[in-house]
What does this fold into?
Amino acid sequence: MSTLTYPDLSPNSDFYSDVPVTYLTKKYGTPIVVYSMKRLYENISRLKSAFANHQVKIHYAVKANYNPYMVSRIINSGVGIDAANLNEVRLALLSGAKPSDIIATPNNLSGNELLKISQLGVTINFDHQGQMETIKNHLPETVSFRINPGIGRGEFAGITTAGHDVKFGISPRDALKAYDSARKCGAKKFGIHMMTGSNVLDPEFFKESTERFFSISCEISDSLGIEFSFLDIGGGFGVPYDLSTGPLDINRTAGYIEQNFLKYRNKGYFKDSDLIIEPGRYIISDAAILVSEITSIKNSEHKIIGLDTGMNTLIRIALYGAHHGIKIAGYSDQEYSNLSDVVGQVCENTDYLARNILLPDVHIGDPAIILNAGAYVSSMASNYNLLGTPAEVAIDGNNDILIREHSTLDTMLGGFLK
Ligand SMILES: Cc1ncc(COP(=O)(O)O)c(C=O)c1O
It folds into this structure.
């Protein structure tokens, strides 16, 4: 059984952020994503203090969770935004970010969309030379490219975004040509970016990848005689999805990154360069739970517990083989003794939220709590089977605030010709 407690969840899982889970389910129905603003702010402060010496600029990767309430609170905490496309840029602007606090790291956008992003005053990490050349007649003053440093690591192959066999970024050799072309097209300032993968819990990987990245950056600087006004090392800072796994040692991670950066600075590089990170998951993943209701109990060979949420809301399990902890409100740890599978309502046999886990002797109507629901859950949810997306509630101080309504048949059918 788990040894650690999930942030803000009481030992019996009957309170979240000091609010009874059954109060929330009665008031808002299920399924609901419930955010602890307290935990969100703790995550941001921990990250800021780990990187405090290094004056690192933090840009939240809004793809992790684009709920505007959350995004505006994150921006108000002094964090910038990393956006993947024009709509994410627009959301950041609507949520209060200044263009200079946004960086865009898109993939395969049209020249038209890239131009609009650039005209909004947002710097772009271009995926490759061809993407930059789609707007070469209107090139911004600063041009940055996404480098593949040759190594990548992510919790799953699907979220490993550098190394072999990935669609992102360019090799150091192609980068030389790309920066040269940007210079010929009129670029005056330069940045450089990498993003090597997501949910990494090993500080040593950040040491190795940033060493490579900074060294490649220096080689490009030397070869072309250009200076980088920023070096953006992407996100990827992991959180444990299994309560028996310890957290990422963020201070050690930040320390390694700083040591590598300073090593090159002491050799005369990066004198006026900003260092940027783009965390998504680290900021918001463990600041939310997904609460659903047990709607069915089948006592066959396997005990199969059915919920009113499934892969439509939480695709990560079917997509990557990810693991999310599941708790049932109101039971003590000692009662988790029945081997069970947990499934949703989607007509696919991939719709398992867990297999062979220990759960209490549950009842229909019990609230089932799925952990780590803040990142890549709502933002990746779909309307498959017209099951709809969950409502979202923020617990902010003494208030519980509905920050997204349940979808309805009407909202799901909006935009269709009827
Ligand atoms: C370019 C870029 N930056 C940042 C992130 C955020 O990653 P994470 O949530 O692992 O920090 C991603 C995620 O895929 C990304 O593609």
